[in-house]
Amino acid sequence: MSSRRSSRNSRQSGGSRITNISDDQITDLVSKLQQLLPEIRNRRSDKVSASKVLQETCNYIKNLHREVDDLSDRLSQLLATTDMDTDQAAIIRSLLM
Amino acid sequence: MNPQLLSLSPNNSSLKSRFTLGFLRALKRLNMQTSSSPSPPQTVSSSSSSSPREMCRRYLRIRIAADASMASAVGSRRAWSRTLLLKIRNRQFRSCNSSARRISMKKKCSGRKMKKKLKCDKEINELRKFVPGGEAMDACSLLDEAAHYIKCLNTQVKVMTRIADIYSAT
Question: How many domains does chain A have?
């Protein structure tokens, strides 16, 4: 895999030559993405088209962004009302262990 | 001994722990800022100033802090984290906006020259909008960066949820 990546990089640094991004490479990366998406992770790869995977990826990232926004909102409200210093040690202990 | 300790990663500086420590430190800094700033006399609230503008500003600061701690936990290994860090630093200093724009435009031109018409071009261009720095990448790097970005976003959401749960429980 690493050798393939380095050959791809050397081709790109050629500059004037048009890079041939083969469909195999795309399919490879798309299947890797598919493993990360919760909805279509369980379905077989030949049933799911690449464009569907990419659409789901966009939706998933959008959802994650929205979750981060909601969590930031929630934390900003909590920040106003709770005392933080006493809880930090407990948080670190429970998060990292 | 706590059985959960066995699941702890051997090197303590995993992405999750780096992000957690960085984000908690940023939250502490934000908390000290809001408590030290003088509240306006006309605000009638029992806790610290909860005017809508103040809440909006705090929410933005927390969101930026979350993205910044995630990007610095990843470091400069990834294009998306480099883009995020650059964007946040430009936002803070506002002095090097022109140079950043010049760099991104140069990359965009070279990317277009090498692009080949692919099957899912429309979806790939749609994905570029969601990954930081996606406009300047070719399709393969974009998919690679998107996979790593999703992994890190998942970690971010998990840690922030845990922190919010702990604070709301006390």
Answer: 1
> Which residues from A are below 8 Å from B63, CB to CB?
68-69, 72
Q: Up-side HSE of residue A39: CA atoms within 13 Å toward CB?
A: 12
Residue of B nearest to A26 (CA): B140
CATH value at residue A43: 4.10.280
Q: Give the Cβ contact number of residue B70 at 10 Å.
A: 25
| pTM recorded for the entire structure | 0.73
> Which position has the higher pLDDT, A22 or A62?
A62
Mark yes or no for CB contact B168/A18 under 8 Å: no
Beta strands in chain B (DSSP E): none
A23: domain range? 2-96
Contacts of A8 in chain B (CB under 8 A): 140
B70-94 confidence digits (pLDDT tens):
999 998 889 999 999 988 888 877 6
